[in-house]
Amino acid sequence: MLVGNIPRQFVLRHYMRGGLVGKLIKDTYIFSGEDKTRPFLEWRLLDKLASNNMRVPRPAAARYVQHGTFYSADIITVRVPGIVPLSQYIADNNPDEAFWNSVGAAIQEFHATGVYHADMNAYNVQVDTDGLVWMLDFDKGMLRLPGPWQQETLNRLHRSLQKIVGLDPDLNFRSVNWEQILEGYFNASRSE
Questions:
Q1: pLDDT in tens, 54-70
Q2: How far is Cα 109 from Cα 111, in angstroms, rounded to an integer?
């Protein structure tokens, strides 16, 4: 498919279990109805967010394959050109305070619209060539009323950043950068 003169590219993601359960059960889930399958739930959320100009990939296709009382599943999204994970961005660049403030403001924009991201980490937060923040992988994501989940997702991102810096101390992230993310987040929430 062409968009202008550029062919549109797609990303296929097979749903895989993580954590301890993932070591035993790789990619199957209990089937409790088509509308409750992970790809269809994620499809609906991504479609709603993309239609409201949120920086998320647009869904292109989703499927599940039922195996008795279980299913496996996949989703295809339109590839966002030029984005890289935050983890890579801070390995390749030395971002300034304005960048870190913009990361916080972008997260607050998602939170202000009630977007819960179940796995906000330094890989699912992505940065495009203009320095704008995108979110990927909305498996188990949903729309929620404001609550403690907002702080929990921020804490998850903080732990993720600390973990990758622990693995590579040369990454351009320090505790002051986390304070700058929070400053951007809270300044954006005050300007609503």
A1: 999 999 999 999 999 99
A2: 5
